[in-house]
Fold:
Amino acid sequence: MSKKIIIGNWKMNPLTPKDAEKLFKNIAELVSRVKKTDIVICAPFIYLDRLTKIRTSKIKLGAQDSFGLDTGPFTGEISPEMLYNIGARYVILGHSERRAMGETNELINKKIKGALASGLVPVLCVGENQRDENHEYFNIVKTQINECLDGISKNSNSKIIIAYEPVWAISTTLNQKDATPMDCEEMVIFIKKVLADKFGAKTECPKIIYGGSVNTKDAGDFLNGGGVDGLLPGRASLNANKFMEIVKICEALNK
Ligand code: 13P
Structure:
């Protein structure tokens, strides 16, 4: 069985390079003995270069967005090739906080293709804004997956990670509600079905992870009962000890 993975999404934190280095160093020290869990930190673009200089064999670095093409007249954009060249290996794409700023499935699809072409692992975020009685949220997630992965080959499919992040469960959402491992498991089964319909039942399924207010109290429940291959904590990844707790829980469950 492949290793489980914990991906910390720092979002637009911390405020200074010094704090970013300190947090990263603290995490690197705490995870130095971890063996059975893959660990990724997705930091703001401007910190990535200096974080690659901090020695750790346990943490891979990731970005939180990237453009769909390598170079060209795209003012303000950062390309996946540039990210790869400074040492990033993962990139979160289609996060709900970016979708809320206008990012469409079509644009995310281009970004996924660019990331794959540059050797980055895309972490595609999908998830509904709210749950409705008619279960329309399943269709929302299905459309996100089908449109974001349009034109992606069967071979590339397994190089992607899908993060199920119900927006209503993210810590900063107004009137946030905790999702349960059952909510998650049900969606993971559905996502696997959508992927099997798209790529064929025999195609290797991407890792599916869960994000949405993951903390030290519920990480084990999601890993045990949520049917996922890992977690994508946001707020909890800004505290080295809490992040390590989550990694430890994962490590204990990884056989
Ligand atoms: P929180 O863990 O802060 O709810 O963030 C989840 C998330 O959006 C990770 O990408």
Observations:
- The chain has one domain: 4-253.
- The longest helix spans residues 181-199.
